[in-house]
Design brief:
single chain, D-Maltodextrin-Binding Protein, domain 2, alpha/beta, Alpha-Beta Plaits, 6-stranded mixed β-sheet, binds zinc ion, 3 domains, 5-stranded mixed β-sheet, binds 1-O-pyrophosphono-5-O-phosphono-alpha-D-ribofuranose, globular, 284 residues
Length: 284
């Protein structure tokens, strides 16, 4: 039996989930609107589900693992193992109120009605804040609730903020941060665990590469030590002599987050002709 992975059928995570599998070198053969599709070159099949259904499917073993938002995992109190944060679909679950409200703090919600698809997480948050409010669970289009008089505020996922904006709402409290994660069911049989570990290994390589850049630069030999001390590298940077006497080329890998700082520093230390290249995969 292939490892069965659940992904969101359509929505914020679908495209990134499928392109992560693709970047891991996995080819999926999906018939038109098929709910399940086999990989042609990996012991895996993909099950397309509503994201809210994924925790239950994984917990009861219908799927072996799944990719979904941490917010959905937290809302469905089921027993699953969180194997990996996936670094995409970053968002927050927030409380929002109509823009005209002069918001005094979380006490504003005392005795108010809040519409949400996340009653479990919201309940816990309000309890910790010592606020008691009336929670209205609705499954979709939460953002219109205040406008139709159904609620005083909402608790929903905010990513770019454009849904809130176009509904005349503003974000006032951050309840949780979330990103995509890979979950699996506890007690996965050994042969499936092996396939999942192989998949996680590939995902690591893809993720590391997306955080890193390969840089090459020319450095006068007298400045090599100064430049080397700036570069973190995987181990140490590679240094090649150039045809031109007294010069070398240094190759290194730098993290995207520190990229511009490092470029500024190596230039100041004497590096020239700096070339930056994307990295496709980085295997440990
Ligand atoms: C969330 C939320 C909003 C939208 C916010 O839905 O319900 O509709 O994303 O994004 P924005 O801040 O970029 O406008 P989600 O994608 O989680 O869909 P779902 O509720 O159908 O799972
Ligand atoms: Zn959903």
């Amino acid at each position: 039996m292939p490892l069965r992975i659940a992904v969101q059928k359509s929505g914020r995570l679908s495209e990134s989930s499928l392109s992560l599998l693709k970047d891991c070198g996995i080819r999926i053969q999906r018939g038109k609107n098929a709910l399940i599709a086999p990989a042609t070159n990996f012991d895996l099949e993909v099950l397309y589900l509503r994201d809210d259904d994924i925790p239950q499917y994984v917990a009861d073993g219908t799927a072996d693992c799944g990719m979904l938002g941490e917010n959905v995992v937290a809302e469905h109190e089921v027993k699953v193992v969180s194997d990996r944060k996936l670094g995409f679909a970053g968002c927050r679950l927030s409380l929002a109120v109509p823009r005209y409200v002069d918001y005094p703090g979380v006490a504003y919600f005392q005795g108010k009605k809040i519409a949400t698809s996340y009653p479990v997480i919201l309940n816990e948050f309000l309890r910790k804040q010592g606020v008691s409010a009336e929670i209205h669970e609705i499954s979709g289009s939460v953002e219109i609730a205040p406008n139709i008089g159904l609620a005083d505020g909402i608790c929903d996922i905010v990513s770019t903020g454009s849904t809130l904006f176009s509904n005349g709402l503003k974000e006032v409290e951050r309840v949780m941060r979330s990103e995509a994660v890979l979950i699996s069911r506890p007690g996965l049989p050994a042969e499936k665990r092996t396939v999942l570990d192989k998949l996680l290994f590939r995902m690591d390589a893809v993720q590391r590469a997306s955080d890193a850049k390969y840089i090459v630069m020319n450095v006068p030999n007298a400045k090599i030590d100064a430049v080397r001390s700036i570069l973190p590298g995987i181990k140490s940077p590679t240094v090649f002599p150039l045809a031109e006497e007294g010069w070398s080329a240094i190759h290194s890998v730098v993290e995207e987050a520190h990229f511009w700082d490092i470029i500024d520093e190596v230039r100041a230390a004497g590096a020239e002709g700096i070339v930056v290249m994307p990295i496709q995969k980085m295997v440990k």
